[in-house]
Specification:
Elements: H1 36-48, E1 56-58, H2 60-67, H3 71-83, E2 87-92, E3 95-100, H4 102-119, E4 125-133, H5 139-143, H6 146-156, E5 165-169, H7 171-181, E6 187-189, E7 192-193, E8 198-199, E9 202-209, E10 213-220, E11 229-233, H8 238-242, E12 249-255
Antiparallel strand pairs: 1-3, 2-3, 4-5, 4-12, 5-11, 6-9, 7-8, 9-10, 9-12, 10-11
Length: 256
């Protein structure tokens, strides 16, 4: 039922979430599922105040003013962020300390990379993010083959560390990756035969891993990996060089 004197739907209310335009005011929208647009819009003013690096003092009135909402709505937003694990807060609504969690900071980094790729990246490069995952153990065997190693030295300018660095992509990064490799130029690594068996051809894309180490993404024409697993090779042991562990997020910029 429509309440008298209400101005109608707010511009920030996602139209696809609900037909009840007051559900957000009652705090019901985010109870049933993720409302990513609300999460991001609420995290941005906190990040701008420095809450990614340290605890900041914040009143509900200040937060409401930055969001352009009522204090009641601002308090609900903070509650939503806390319940979803994006922030930690202490104190009372009138005077509280707030800091973004690792999950909250990651959400802001995702936004940054999305916008960066849209507005700043040339057409011949893209940055994706995946989570480190242990492979099936076959990478070391294949990468150790001299037929591959010689070609990487000749065509990419480095000798391979014996093993692959595998990242698992979420649906968004996988879609962007698949679209990008259709346009990027790859370096062909030719197949070869030994006395025992044959080894297939590979596509190699130059890449910078963790924003600091040069390497390559390799895509075998024949692979046992799932589509959302990306294999990376480099001249060094990447887990140690990047100080990352299983499940950690890693950014990779691919050039073509």
């Amino acid at each position: 039922m429509r309440r008298e004197g209400h101005a109608g739907p707010r511009s920030y209310l996602p139209k696809y979430e609900t037909k009840d335009i007051y559900a957000y005011e009652r705090g019901e929208i985010y109870k049933g599922g993720t409302v990513e647009i609300e999460e991001v819009a609420s995290l941005i003013p906190l990040a701008k105040r420095g809450a990614i690096e340290e605890r900041i003092y914040l009143t509900s009135g200040e937060f409401a003013q930055e969001l352009g909402t009522s204090q009641q709505t601002a308090n609900r937003r903070l509650q939503m962020l806390e319940e979803r694990g994006f922030i930690e807060r202490t104190g009372s609504p009138r005077r509280q300390q707030v800091i973004l969690t690792e999950k909250g900071a990651a959400k802001m980094k995702d936004l940054f990379f999305t916008l960066y790729n849209i507005f700043s990246k040339p057409e011949n490069e893209i940055t994706i993010r995946g989570r480190l995952i242990t492979g099936m153990g076959e990478g070391k065997y294949y990468i150790s083959q001299q037929g591959y190693r010689n070609q990487f030295i000749q065509k990419l300018g480095f000798s391979l560390y014996p093993g692959t660095f595998n990242l698992k992509l979420d649906d968004n990064n996988l879609a962007r990756f698949n679209a990008a490799i259709e346009k990027l130029t790859f370096i062909p690594i030719e197949g070869f035969k030994t006395e025992d068996r044959s080894f297939g051809a590979v596509k190699a894309y130059k890449a910078k891993i963790g924003n600091k180490i040069d390497g390559a993404i390799i895509i075998p024409y024949r692979t046992h990996h799932d589509e959302n697993i990306v294999e990376i090779v480099a001249p060094t042991y990447l887990r140690k060089a990047l100080a990352v562990n299983e499940g950690d997020a890693v950014d990779v910029t691919i050039y073509g």
